[in-house]
Amino acid sequence: MKYAFLAVIGLLFIHTAALAQNEKRVEKEYSSSDFNSLKINNSFGDIEISPYSGSKIDILIVISANGSKGNDVSELINSVHFDFVENGRTLEITTRRDEKKLKWKGVYEFSMNFKIKMPENVNIDIDNSFGDVRINGTTGVLKLKVQHGDCFVAYANGNENKMDISFGDVRIESMSRANLKIQHGDLRIEKIHDLSLDIQFGDIDIDLMSGTNTLNIAHGDLNIDDVSSKLKSLTIDVQFGDIEIEGLAKEDFEMMLTGTFSDFSWSSSWLVKAKTIGMNNSNYTVHTTADPMNPKKLQITASHSDVDLE
């Protein structure tokens, strides 16, 4: 038994030694007083930006790879370079690869991670593919373009928040003045104020909505748990997706509902001011209260959908 055990240990040692591991670290530090914007153009890597109270922009990029041959692993890692360009008040980071040395043969694992800490008022502009993006908070302008990766935003309270996401899920804790475009991914929001959304092939879950909102939905369901007293209007165009909205009864709403091959349902206490029902289409004007003085506006145009309002 003793010799068998030692033989197993020896085999494990040989196997472990045969697997080459390598890592490359890039560290940079800038004064945040020199820049009001950070721009990143990257692919095949995750990006995380965190706010902090210091006066620096701290950047750490870690590339790691595992493989069967040390030379192949090292060559792959060393084929990745980063350009840091100070373009006026914008700090630009671009990932560049030496295509002649970019060889994946014999490499089992590869990862690249950006970890950035900076003041929350620095504007963020990221274009990332094949990797996740995590924003742990910002009060500056936020622009994200992400392909084949998930996206998380803790809070984004700047004057402009624009996100273009494809083939990835999006989760937002708090955001205002948002312009979102999502394809082939789900959207989960806790609090939103002033949302413009265009989404295809993904479901939407929103805990609380306020402000002025416009939603265009194709092939996805919408669920809104509650609406704030600060909600001004909500316009929805949905095709091939169901809608459920709660919290409407506590406010004065005028609802204009139009459907093609769609069904609408609402509280029996609400007042139907007008309705037109055809073979495949229907139109309703519904009030949540008898004589609303200054009602909030809800407009829904639905096609091949079920709509439930509460």
Account of the 3D structure:
The chain is mainly beta and 310 residues long. The protein contains two helices and 23 strands. It has helices at 2-18, 70-78, and strands spanning 20-31, 37-43, 46-51, 56-67, 80-87, 90-97, 107-118, 123-129, 133-135, 142-147, 151-156, 161-166, 170-183, 187-200, 204-218, 222-239, 243-245, 253-260, 263-265, 271-277, 281-287, 296-303, 306-309. The protein has a 23-stranded mixed beta sheet that branches. Strand 5 (80-87) and strand 6 (90-97) form a beta hairpin. The radius of gyration is 26 Å and the shape is elongated. The chain starts with a helix and ends with a strand. Residues 1-19 have low confidence and may be disordered. Keywords: Signal. Residues 1-20 form the signal peptide. It comes from Cryomorpha ignava. This is DUF4097 domain-containing protein. It holds the Pfam family DUF4097.
Q: Care to give the gist of this entry?
A:
Helix content is 8%, strand content 63%. It has two helices and 23 strands. The chain has a 23-stranded mixed β-sheet that branches.
